[in-house]
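Lecture notes, unit on binding sites. The following record was shown on slide 14. It pairs a sequence with flavin-adenine dinucleotide.
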Amino acid sequence: MLLSDKIIRPLLSPIPRVLLNSLFDCAIIGGGPAGLNAALVLGRARRSTVLFDNDNARNAVTQESHGFITPDGIRPKEFREIAHKDITKYPSVIYKEEKVTSIIKKDQLFEIATDNKDLYQSKTIIISTGLRDVLPDIENISTYYGKSLFNCPYCDGWEMRDKPLAVIIEEQTQGFHFIQTVFNWSKDLIVCTNGKPVLNPEQKRLILNKGIKIFENKITKFEGENGQMEKIIFENGDSIIRKGGFVLPQPIQASDFAKKLGCEYNSLGGILVDFYGRTSVPGVYAAGDASVFAPAQLIIAAADGLKAAVGVNRDLIQKEFLD
Ligand SMILES: Cc1cc2nc3c(=O)[nH]c(=O)nc-3n(C[C@H](O)[C@H](O)[C@H](O)COP(=O)(O)OP(=O)(O)OC[C@H]3O[C@@H](n4cnc5c(N)ncnc54)[C@H](O)[C@@H]3O)c2cc1C
């Protein structure tokens, strides 16, 4: 059973917008594992909840998800289908496949606009819009990302174990640790710095000591079929056979709603939250990669969604009891 979407008043604005009649207890922006789990918990807590998602998950590029219990190896699409089925059991939750375009705080309430030109009102919001990965500037890297080139050895290291792999790093702080980590899964390793001077002499000595070759030239492109890497081609004409690898992308926030609402950020670039997902702005909660930032894992995002939902419910209960 869905809540009514009846239109009650057009607003005076250059783009016609309509305010939908329900005042929700919570609007969740982003329906990945964080937002989905938050919706589940809020539904079970009998809270009227609207969950918005524009179906553009960070892990949509990958074929299987690993590293959490039941079921290991599930397709990301199937994960969402099961979650949506779970949520439909709770009549106070509605799902909107819409992109949220703006959120404004007005008199303690939030006005949420979507690309359908609809407006929703809610007492609280959970931002669970996740992160986006900015990949190194290499011609056809996105063809291979999520298929044979991954960002997280804990997620995909097992499937890539003992294969001839490349670690692509362009960043100093975590790069050396990343190489050591991938070495745990395959000893047949090379390091590519894609033209960037990221390794110091001592790091280079330690890497070479382990039999790992270092390629410091810029990568021109990858070769292979259907996203399965076969070869890496360098700008100086060198090439090397590799069956895949790991890369350190630059994660960025997928939305700037928290910034626009005035939320503080932590030192990693995640939205600053307390244990219950409360941000520095009353009524605004955040969950999943958007606040955790690292380690980015489905099970952590889902747990985080639960915590934010409990935070929302606790705060509304307190307020309602005292009113
Ligand atoms: C290639 C790759 C492979 C991975 N493999 C694994 C793995 O095997 N195991 C594992 O545990 N983790 C894996 N991860 C990490 C995992 O995908 C993330 O940690 C997890 O998806 C974070 O969940 P989330 O709910 O915070 O964000 P997301 O899953 O990114 O969901 C955010 C959602 O918000 C929506 N959204 C964003 N902006 C808006 C907007 N304006 N309006 C409406 N909706 C919006 C997006 O469409 C998206 O659906 C992988 C990541 C990548 C990149």
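Take-home: The domain at 7-132+250-322 is CATH 3.50.50.60 (FAD/NAD(P)-binding domain).
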